[in-house]
Design brief:
The chain has 14 helices and 14 strands. It has 486 residues and is an alpha/beta fold. The protein has an 8-stranded parallel β-barrel with strand order 1-3-4-5-7-9-11-12, surrounded by 5 helices. Strands 2-6 form a two-stranded antiparallel ribbon. Helix 6 packs parallel to helix 8 and helix 12 (359-373) runs parallel beside helix 13 (399-418). The relative contact order is 0.14.
Length: 486
């Protein structure tokens, strides 16, 4: 295999503001929807509480305390050689309630300092505009993205960002993993719809037809807002590059039965292309009408909105990739049926969280996306969560981490050799942060260890893992030195 990464390839790492910053109610910041989500685990879903209850633990309130330690963290990222830092801005730090006339100057000032710190080290920010951080007030008082009024609030927010940070940020992602909005989990964290059950679950099989229609209407409003943001970004600064951000799903047929092959195709369409076609092609998929009809989904879409979608397609595609799954016609009646949004692949080794490790699926997905859209691709999340222990001397030996990343980087190199235009790769995550799905700190993805537990106990001091030193060599060699020895 020839390692053929482009000369200016964007190596780096990623975080999300709600999962790393902490300081959840300081310097004028308002509450976000994840601030109302308790800690959970594999067996117990996170709860979404209407009030902040002292009897519960809310992991985003502490994160990994990057709000106060961003200079230390960015210096560590620079030591690894990051070319880009994929991060997010917390919407409720800029507009605490989301519907104010004027932004919070303290929030604007904080992110300006973060971007300037990145630039000091030659690190280019790649910024997600909203990453599971909708202001709680917009969820509670307006019903989240189900309300078309959200579009104007979002546009005021993005105009503030594009104006305030012109010249400091040139690469933006409009919504994080927007395709999760097709199921209950994303309806909550992406679309800001407070669940009646009070639980942060993957998909609610008891959702009514009215609730499902509301979910897809919310997604439509997000599509319109994203398209308008793309157009506005180009007007404010023609050098701005605007990307969508998807959770990358790979589905294989569980058997060679034609019915399972069709089930896998449909899962790929719904999980990946329902959203991507709108954001990359400017129109809904050709099969969308039947999809809506079979689920009794009713949407309000105006001719003006169709034009907005057509004019506001993204410049590039960014996505996360962690695993692959299988599809079966026997389990296809409900989206998300089975394990982790699909069925486990008996041919794959599983992570400690039951996710199938599949580097070849990564190459497959890169080729699928590029063949369909022919837009530059950027992988902004890729990694493996692990239980880890720090030794007395401060060492953290995370060979499983290194092995996972090594094999996926090899697969990415193969995709580039295939002819896929890949512009960057940011590891999830740059540093240990609380997991969005469960709120746990012990599910560690980072290259940097943070001395903290799920309850917020610890020094929060930073320690370089073995993967830190390994990734430093990978970046320095532009992907040529993958160190089989770890």
């Amino acid at each position: 295999m020839i390692m053929a990464f482009p000369k200016n390839f964007l190596w780096g790492g990623a975080t999300a503001a709600t999962q790393c910053e902490g300081a959840w109610n300081r310097d004028g910041k308002g509450e976000s929807i994840l601030d109302h989500c308790t800690v959970g685990d594999r067996e117990h879903p996170r709860l979404v509480t209407m009030n902040i209850e002292p009897s519960y633990s809310y992991p985003t309130h502490e994160g990994c305390r990057e709000y106060d330690r961003y200079k230390e963290d960015i210096a560590l990222f620079a030591e690894m050689g990051f070319k880009t830092y994929r991060m997010s801005i917390n919407w409720s730090r800029i507009y605490p309630n989301g519907d104010e006339e004027e932004p919070n100057t303290a929030g604007i000032g904080h992110y300006r300092k973060v971007f300037e710190e990145c630039r000091k080290y030659g690190i280019e920010p790649t910024v997600t505009i909203t990453h599971y951080d909708m202001p709680w007030h917009l969820c509670k008082e307006y019903g989240g993205w189900a309300n078309p009024a959200m579009i104007q609030f979002y546009m005021k927010y993005v105009k503030t960002l594009f104006t305030e940070y012109k010249g400091l940020v040139k690469r933006w992602l409009t919504f994080n993993e927007i395709n999760f909005g097709t199921v209950t989990y994303g309806e909550i964290v992406t679309s800001g719809i407070i669940p009646a059950s009070g639980r942060l679950v993957v998909d609610d099989p008891d959702a009514t037809e009215e609730e499902v229609s509301r979910r897809f209407q919310a997604l439509h409003h997000e599509f319109v807002a994203s398209a308008k943001a793309v157009t506005l970004a180009h007007e404010i600064d023609p050098e701005n590059q605007m990307g969508c951000m998807m959770c990358g799903f790979v589905y294989y047929p569980l058997t060679s039965r034609p019915e399972d092959v069709m089930a896998a195709q449909r899962d790929m369409e719904v999980w990946n292309y329902y959203c991507m076609d709108v954001m990359c092609k400017g129109k809904y998929s050709y099969w969308a009408s039947r999809f809506w009809r079979e689920r009794n989904i009713t949407l309000k879409i105006t001719e003006e909105e169709k034009e907005i979608l057509k004019e506001g397609t993204v410049d590039f595609i960014s996505f996360s990739y962690y695993k692959s799954d299988c599809s079966s016609a026997d389990a296809a009646k409900n989206l998300g049926n089975g394990t982790n949004f699909g069925l486990p692949n008996p041919e794959l080794e599983m992570t400690e969280w039951g996710w199938g490790i599949d580097p070849l699926g990564f190459r497959y997905l890169l080729n699928e996306y590029y063949a369909r859209y022919e837009k530059p691709l950027m992988i902004v999340e890729n990694g493996q969560g692990e239980y880890e222990k720090m030794e007395e001397n401060g060492s953290i030996h995370d060979e499983g981490h290194i092995s996972y990343l090594r094999e996926h980087i090899k697969a990415m190199a193969d995709a580039i050799e295939d002819g896929v235009d890949v512009i960057g790769y940011t590891v999830w995550s740059a540093i240990d942060i609380v997991a969005a799905s469960t709120g746990e700190m012990k599910k560690r993805y980072g290259l940097i260890y943070v001395d903290a537990d799920d309850a917020g106990n610890g020094t929060y001091n930073r320690y370089r893992k073995d993967s830190f030193y390994w990734y430093k060599k990978v970046i320095a060699s532009n992907g040529e030195c993958l160190g089989e020895e770890g």
